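#data-curation
PF: Archiving a pair of folding outputs for the training set. Convention for this channel: one message per protein, sequence first, structure tokens after, nothing in between. First:
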Amino acid sequence: MFYLICMISNVLEYEDQTPIRNLDNTFVDHTSDYKTRLVYKDALKSISSKTGALFPRMNQFESQTSFLSGFMIQLSEQISSLNERMEEFTNRIEELNSKLSCNRNSPS
């Protein structure tokens, strides 16, 4: 009888400890999960602080780039216009030169 009581007592203790073990395992799992989250959160803070310092530079770089691209477009248009005008000027000079040649060669 004593043996049976001891076995029942052991079974009851084991059953009572099972939820505690489960709770302990759950706590350990959650603790490691929170540690992982904290590591991720710290990493994100570190990255955001580093990139936050870079964004003004990037914005400044983007504004400089847009200014330079606008300047390059304007300069390209001016060069194209100048090339057209030089072509017209060259054609006009050639016409005048041919007229002068004709006038020199013609008998007066």
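PF: Second:
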Amino acid sequence: MGPPRPSRNVWPPRCWTASPMLAHLNVAQKRAVIRALAAEDYMLVQGFPGTGKSTTLATMVRVLLQLGRSILITAYTNTALDSLLLKLHKLGIDFMRVGRSDRVHPDLAGHTDQARTCQVSTVEELTELYASQRVVAATCLGLNHSIFSRRTFDVCIVDEAAQVLQVTALGPLFMCSTFVLVGDDKQLPPVVRSESAVLHGMTETLFERLCRPEVTITLTEQYRMNGPIMALANLLTYNNQLTCGTPQLEKATLDLPHYQRLVEKGAVAPWLQRVVAPTLEEAVVLVDTAGAGGEARVGGSSLVNHWEARLVIVVVRTLLKAGLSGSDMGIITPYRGQVKLVRKLLAKELKEEDVGKRVEVNTVDQYQGRDKMAIICSFVRCGKSNDKPAGILTDRRRLNVALTRAKRKLILIGDQVTLTRYTSFSCLMKVLAPHQVYCLTPGTDGFQWEEEEEEECQDTEATELEK
């Protein structure tokens, strides 16, 4: 595909009526919207983590509607699609969401095609209804609906386009005159399970193929991470392109209203004080478990590390006591077995506080496009688990996603010796300052595995192995 053809009249007179809608955007976000209006065929928006991509797209939709354009919005996953649609819903923008009702966010139930067509009794009414929808949304694989055989659109917006295979992305593009691809090729790639297909280049997306400076607006001003977390992302991935949206954000810390009182009462062990401290200097901390005596084992088709899972529970409980809401923290781990184990322990250990369900535990893939005030990452693998392939840990883009979900506090738990065998983690260890790494050792700073805890670890690991 050749370079795009920009409109000769980049900002036609009728666009001035929409200019007040851009007032809340930063310079790059405004440029993205204007470029989309001016494009004759296509343009790209590269949105780095926390740079307000959804806000930009919601404004883009508002302006396009103001100018009388019809819009098709699509993404590969229901989660990514609904994330953008929730923004439109809050802005009062009308749209039709095509897809199975059980896979649509509950707040969007009134926008589904089932809800819109329940009162329709004739083919003529149905045809008129479909033709009148100026904004229609569906996943890339949900375009077999009859509405798409009856009409085309002026503009197609493909969100999270860096996750969509080329063959999948082409479907919606045939239904429009102009398309906008939005994504970040430094985050999660498409899932291709065939090694042969990977070798033959199937993982290359249309976004990567078309991403060139002359066709792309890059959003670099972020509003999510404080300075230390952003610095980590810059050093590992973004070559210092990311900047903080405000000076206040750069210095923002985790709000733990009860932390100091707990410390003064001696209710928090010295090692835990360092790990959960709500200071800017400790906004990023690695808990190195290499000397803690833990062990990872194969549980079913995945890896589990009960020792790390127990550490996660201890950290979560301490953050809760210090005043952080369960809904403000998230736990990320690369292995589904560990996700299952941590969820089980949360439900058991935190039952009385009724927060087990509010603390979200998921894999990296499920956290794309999401964020939390505090993120705890359990990397699972240690020196005794080298018999299991480590493909997940070798993917630098997945590590990037995991690190950039946190707003104020990022706690990494893993075996430093083992993790540094992988290139992406080796780079991570090099950029962490000495004060950001805490080597966990039994008998030091009040850390000690209890005997009953060790027995429970062994019993649970045995149970996992039997599954």
